[in-house]
Amino acid sequence: MHIPDGFLDLWICALMYVISAVVIGYSAVKLKGTLESKQVPLIGVVAAGIFAAQMLNWPIPGGTSAHLVGGAIAGILLGPYAGCLSMASVLTIQCLVFGDGGITALGANIFNMGIVDVFVGYAVFRALRNFNQDAATFLAGWLGIWLAAVACGIEIGVSSIFKYEIETTVPIMGFYHGILGIVEGIITMLVIRYIALRQPDIIYAAKEVVA
Amino acid sequence: MLEGLKEWKGALIVIGILLLLTPLFAWAADLVGYAEPLENAAEELGAMEHETAIISGILPDYTIPGANPYASAIVAGIVGCVIVLVIGILVGKALAR
Question: Does domain A10-206 have CATH number 3.30.720.210?
Answer without folding.
Answer: no
